[in-house]
Each structure stands twice: as C-alpha cells, then as structure tokens.
Amino acid sequence: MTSPIVLLALVGVLYTAGVYLLLERSLTRVLLGVLVLGNATNVLVIVAGGPTGAAPLVGRAPEETMSDALVQALVLTAIVITLGVSAFLLALIHRAWTLDREDDLTEDTEDRSVRRRLARGEQEDEEELDTTGCENVSDTDPEDTETGPDPVRAAAGAIGEDGR
Amino acid sequence: MNPGSTLLATLIPLPVLLPLLGAGLTLVLSRRPMLQRAVSVAVLAVVVVIAALLLVTAVQSGPVVATVGSWPVPLGITLVVDPLSGLMLLTSMTVTLAVLVYAIGQGVYDRDEDTPITIFHPTYLVLAAGVANAFLSGDLFNLYVGFEVLLMASYVLLTLGGSRSRVRAGITYVVVNVVSSLVFLVGIALVYAAVGTLNLAQISLRMAEVPSGTALAIHLVLLTAFGIKAAVFPLSAWLPDSYPTAAAPVTAVFAGLLTKVGVYSIIRTETLLFPDSEVTQTVLLVAAGLTMLVGALGAIAQADIKRILSFTLVSHIGYMIFGIALATPLGVAGAVFYVVHHITVQATLFCVVGLIEGVGGSTSVTRLGGLAKASPLLALLWFIPAVNLGGIPPLSGFVGKLGLVQAGVVDGSALAWTLVVVSVLTSLLTLYAVTKVWVLAFWRPADQIPVSEEPDQDEDEEADEGDEDAPDDRERTTGGLPGAPTPRSGVLTQVRPGTARTIARAEANSGAEVDWPVARLAPTDGAPALSGRFLGAAGDTVSSSLPRVMTAATAALVVLGLSLTVAAGPLYAVADQASDDLVARTPYIQAVFAQTVDDRVAR
Lengths: 164, 603
What we know:
Chain A is an all-alpha fold.
C-alpha cells in the first residue's frame, strides 16, 4: 500500500497551524484552531481508508478498484459533529463578547493570583491576602499597569495557559 | 443463546432510543412544564427498568448482543451488554433519574418556571442517551458518537443561563473536550488504518497481528483521549476549573457520569483491545498514583465545597485507574466496584452541596457555620456520603478501597506496593478534606464565622459572579495552614451571629454594605444570587427549611449509597464476574461473533 504523501504532508501542516492557533489567547483564533484541527483529522481519516479508487457505487466499477466508502461515512459524521460544536463555541464566544467586550480568554481568578504572586513576590502577597481574604486593591493595580510591556505578566500568562 | 435473551436483545437499543424520543417530546412540550417533567421522569424510569433487566440477563446468561438494522456483525453497528456495561448502565441511569427528580425539585424551589430553562429537560435526556450509547456500544466509532452526543448535551447544561462565570468555564470545557474528541478520532483513524475494522471484538482479534510498536502508538493515542475525558492527572486540570460553576444538579450528574464514561472506555481499551501491554500498565499505574495524590492535595487547599468535591472527584479517578492498570481479575473487579460506588457517592455529595447552598447561602466553608444545628437532616445527608467517600468501614467506599488494596498486595510488585500506600494515604487525605467541611460548616457555631471589617471595593471581583470562593481559595492556598479549622489570621474586628444566608438577608434588606460576594451580588431587596442556581442568578425564595423534593431525591441517593454497602457481597460478585469476562475476553468476542452466524442463518 502506498502512502499518499501529499495528503499526509497536508495533515502535518494543518496540525501545526491548528495547534499554533489553539494556543493563542484570542478566542476567535482558538475557534479557528479547532476548525483547522478538525479538518486535519478528517483528512487523516480519509487517508486511513487506503488508496483512492473508483466511486464506491455498485455496478459502476469492479469492486476491487473502489475506494473505501466507510471512511467517507465516518468523516461525514465527524464533519457534522465539528460543525455543531463550532456553532456552539461561536455562540459562547459571542456571549463572552457581549458580556465583557473582550475576545481574549478571561483569566481564571486562580491564574490571576499566580500572576500577582509572581509580580510581587510570595511574602508580601501572602500578608496582603491574609488581612482581608478578599482581593481588594491588590487586584486592580496590575490591571492598570498592563498597557506597558511587562515580562512578568507574559510569564504568568504562560503559566495561566498551562494551568488550563 | 436462549430465546429469552434474544428477546431481550431487542430491548438493548431502547436505553438510547427512549431518551432521544423523550428529548423530542419534551422539546415539543416546553410550554407544559408539568407534562414535560412527567415525560422525563417516566422515560428515565423505564430506562432504569430495562437496564436492570439487561444486567440480570447478562450476568445469568452471558453478553447479549443486538445488531442495529440486522447488518451482519463486522459491517453494522453492534450494541453489546456484558456484565460490565449492564452494571454501568444501571448505576448511571439510576443516578440520572434521582438527579432529575432533584433538578425538578430545584426548578420548583427556585420559582423559575417562567425563565427559559425549558431546554433543561430535552438536553438532560440527550445526555442520558449519549451515556447509554457509550456504555452499550460495541463499535469504536459508535463510542465516539456516544461521547459526542453526551458532550454536546453537557456543553449546553454547563452553560445554562449564560452567566459570566459559566461562559468562561464553558469555553475552557468545550475546547478541552473538542480537542480530546479529535485525539479520539485520530485514534480511530489509526485503528482503522492498522486493522481495517472498528468493531471492538474484531479489533481485539486482529490487533494481535499488528506489530507491537504500532499497537503501542495506537494504544497511547486512545488512552490520551480517554484520559482527558476521565480526568486522569496530567490531563485533569480542566475539571476542577469548569464543574463548580454549573448548577447543582448539573454538577452532580456530570461528576457522577461523565468522567466514568472515560473510565469505562479505558477499561474496554485495556482489557479488550490491548491486553498485556506492560508499558501502558506502568504508565497508568504512575498516572493513577499522581492522580490520587494531586487531586487529594488540591482538595485540601480549597475552601469552596464544590471545588473540594471536584478535586476529590479527580483524586478518586486514580483508584479506578489503579485497579485497571493492575490488569488482574482482582484489580479490574475492584475498579468496577469502585466505579459503581463512586458514581453514586459523588453525585450524592454534589446534590447535598446544592442543599447546603440553599440553607447556608454559600458553598465556601469560610462563610458557613452552624449547619448541623440549623438542619440536622442536612448534616446527616452530608455526613453519610462524606465518610463513605473517605472510606470508613463498613461503607461501600471502604469495600472498594479494600478490594483495590488487596489486588495491589496480591500483585506484589514494587510499583503496586507504592500505589497501595498512596491509595491509603489518599483515603486519609480525602477524609481530612471532607472532615474539614464538616467541622467548619456543620459543627462550628454560627456566631464564630469570621468576618473582616474592610468593605470590598473590587469591581472586577463583583463582576465575576459565581467566583465568590476565589478570594478564599487564594487565602487557603497561600496561608500557612490550609484548611485548619481556625479563624483566619487576619484582623478580626467582629463576629456576627447567624449563617451567611441570614446575615445576607438582613444586610441586603437594610441596604447596608455587605462584605462577601454572595451577599454583595444580591439585589438591594432580594435574596443573594447563588452560583448553583439554574440560571446562576437570583430568584429563589429564602427559606431555612429544606426543600422537600430536593431533600427526598438526595436522601434516595444516600440510601442508594447505603444499599451498595448492604448489597456489597452480591455486587462484588457481579463485579468479579464482569472482570473475569473482561480479562478472559472470549465471552465478549464469542457473543458478538455468534451474532454473525445467527443473522446469516436467518437470511
């Protein structure tokens, strides 16, 4: 059985792009990543069906030369499922946009605490937290300074991604 | 096969079909809430009865197989009920039914008949259909479809109401699960490329001829996909992040069922498709140990009861993986028993949390107190499943853990012994976590709930409804003694009498500044908004007494948990038989292929 190199290369390229997009912070790009990954997987399933042949319709061609019809049925199902999930995800992103006017993944409060701890150092932070148990001023501060380039924030952002 | 079981074989598709039809019917009946509820309850009750019949048949006369559309076996979709899937189906559907009653009770209690949650019933039934399909499927792709059906329903249920916190959690949840489904689909493609079939029984026969390296690669891809769904440690971070935001009954049914479908798939993969794979057994053992420890430690660090329970959920997945990874009849039997126990107990606990939220006005142990005095019944409902989860004899949690420890000792390898130690340690840590809740929320007198003086001005936090617990989590995680039942180390200027709820009510009514988010979110003249409500918004009535239907459903679940203890002997026998069948593999494969002959003869 010969492997269709072109299709496999396509799968590789799509996976690369999809994973890259998926790791973005912007939700729209995450959605695009999901779509690209979905397509890559569908192509992979098609490749799994073996070499291409005649259309699998009885009577049109000898049975040995037909391509595998099963993988096409599987891919059809998978496409429908991906479509449904994408629609739902799009609706969620739209909802997040109407709520917050923000396309970025809003951080979990847990992630935020990690970031603040990194920015201020453990000791000070603990003290602050213990006095109130609520994140008062401390939480809004770093948000204001976010406009400038802030390596610490980037690092913490990365940690936030991991945490997810 | 005897004629009785062939007759019963026609019942096999019904646990999938009935909820789907019921979903359509409830959607049509969305303007008739009473009728809608009656239909959902009736459908699930019938499914429970069918599941019981199927289990009895499978235990008595071996696996029952149905071929959808009468296609001969390797071609069509097969549905198989062996003791394992019968047991899983019966347990999950019983819990689903109880939680549905609970949800109906909450819907009534919340007085939200006018709000657009009519979608709840159809979605819930679709979820049940997806779970049933996954358990019954004898075909890898049908398993994938079952997963997608239940996941799609779970996306909707998780984000019910579309509040800010739920949308945030929902996006994470959806993306993680979509990715895991894609990994699963890749696994399916690889399986098909390697063996040219997707029928589980046929794969298991043909996989023996595949070169071991290829088989291992396929095996690991499938395990990764199922590992994400089952929340096994390195792949479990999504779970405690997303589950606690959902409505109480939704969390209960998710905690009970969804991860267990992943566990079930891992059992099938390990026993039927890839037996005797030493590499993955080692990998799974290590993952099981880490899952137990990391989950239990996470639970200790949390202050919110829902989060504590989510982490214990992750932690106890480790027990099942431990049993599966041993790959001996004893180990698998322990895992099967543990799955049944865990589905019940975890769903019960999340239901109780819904009740706690209703009475106490919060789910954070730092804001709760005096619940044992306020409602002894609630205390009892929490106490029994909590100690059951912790593994106190003679409850079913203890029986399950004992079985697994025994299997580990019999196995005798160094890794197995390590896992035995870890599992006992995890049991203690779990007990510590649930006892912390008990001591703080139930035993602590209400007038000792610490309250800080400073008013909270944090707009950002205010926006995040449903994240009320966040500040405390942080305090707990960074503080010196996490979870210790001492007052917080901050400057306490005063203590107030009453539970958080009663304080919230008083302050909300007087329009005063209130200093914890639950109450702060409250409309000036209303009750506090609670994250566990269906729509994540206010609308409930304030009542110190327990809502009757919800309590009855929870009590039924507690009784179910206790009955697992009483019937532990016969149940363990069923688990033993299931695991013998699984490890032997032949009953399953023979039953499926016997069907081929039958069909061809019939033609």
